[in-house]
Amino acid sequence: MSQNNLFLTPDSGDKSAYIRMMESTVHAIAEAVDHGQAYAGMGPYELRAAVHSEELLPAQGRSFEEILSEVKEKILPNLVRPMSTNYMAHLHSPALLETVAAEIILSTFNQSMDSWDQAPVATEIEVEVVRNLCKLYGYDEKGDGVFTSGGSQSNLSGLLLARDWFCNTKLNWDVKKFGLPEQFRRFRMYASEISHFSMEKSAHLMGLGYDAVAKIPVDDAMRMDMKAFREQIEKDIKEGFFPFCACATVGTTDFGSIDPMKEMRGICDEFGMWLHADAAYGSGVILSEKYAHRVAGLAACDSITVDFHKMFLMPISCSVSLIKDGKNFEALTLHADYLNREEDEEDGYINLVNKSMQTTRRFDALKVWISFRMRGKEGWSELITKCIDNAAYFYSQLAKRDDVEVIVKPEISSVVFRLLPVAGSTEDADTMNKRIRRSLLHNKGVVIGQTVCRGNTCLKFTLLNPLQNEKKLDELLALILSLR
Ligand SMILES: Cc1ncc(COP(=O)(O)O)c(C=O)c1O
Known about the structure:
Elements: H1 12-32, H2 44-51, H3 64-75, E1 87-88, H4 97-109, H5 120-136, E2 144-148, H6 151-170, H7 175-178, E3 187-192, H8 198-205, E4 213-216, H9 226-238, E5 242-249, H10 261-270, E6 274-279, E7 303-307, E8 319-323, H11 342-346, H12 365-399, E9 404-406, E10 414-419, H13 429-444, E11 447-453, E12 456-462, H14 470-482
Parallel strand pairs: 1-11, 3-4, 3-5, 5-6, 6-7
Antiparallel strand pairs: 2-8, 7-8, 9-10, 10-12, 11-12
Helix pairs in contact: 1-3, 4-12, 5-12, 6-8
């Protein structure tokens, strides 16, 4: 082998190369964070031209130092800064320092979570983290879970288990063996009209199609309307459909509104349905001593999507799919002689692939383990509560103005609003709000969200950064108003 320093090995040369590369990278990163803007990089055309290269794989390579200087020049300045208090566009959080450190451990050792022999202690840590999470969300010892790539996959995992549970228990049909039963075109699942698009995507992937998702209207607080939910199920049953599952969105993408889980549980029980909670956003609320009661209904759901790369401030990817009765994971279990042998499992080797749609999988549970132990209940409660308090404050500032329309009082940490044109302006409100967002992005280093609510273009603050504060929110509002 003509090339040195491929991996971190016991060799002293490899060790110094590892330390040198990590140190120079960490220094380059820290130096690049030299301003408070959320984005100070190029616009789309300029950026595309700057990174365009004919030679991704040149005939001869160059040194790491040379490539790192290219990274410093082309890449680092053009990264958005989720850690900036000027960044609040999406459910996209900054990453806590200790969880970035955890990423170095898990990438260096590159454990793969499919089988015990690829991830011994990592397997035991994931099991331990999942056990504690089940307890945190109110599940008993039957609860179980698995880490996934994100909220979309956690939703798919929960909904797939719901479909198979329904087929097994109500139709006496094993989907795993035989595929979908003949009634599949009449399967129905229910989610609010503002639920995440992973509902439809999951329905497609499960072989049911988008039309299997009945979209239920929301009330003025942007929560699923319970009367409409019940009426839709009753109508569907009369027409020969099979309602198998409902999804409560616990923190809608735009508004952070929380569907009424306890009422949904009652209706699901009445009609023999599984209740899934898409708490990709709202799962973090459980750690706020002040606000945890808002998500207490999660304990009543059959499955829960928890995203750690949203409110929990961890690097992407980090999510978990929790199931109230872990035996439903059987739907995802398949033994292979080369990987997860039953004989090994009988001897106590846990192969987490048995619960997962993925095979090779990251040791993301380490980030949760390190950060939960480091900050404790008190530290976590402070971080989450601050974000929710910030949203309540910003809402109160907007609600007292008559030149701003604020859509709904926040239940978590998102505020959606729309500026109204000033007297004498010829620009319509939609055009003005869109122009303001673009101008903030390219001229002011401020990245905020934009969405449509009841046909109108709105602006959105998704406040996931606990460094955000009232003074800064006042300044941002003044800046936005000045751009009208
Ligand atoms: C309510 C909700 N569910 C699911 C998701 C999907 O999560 P992910 O992007 O981690 O796949 C999102 C993403 O923002 C979301 O807002």
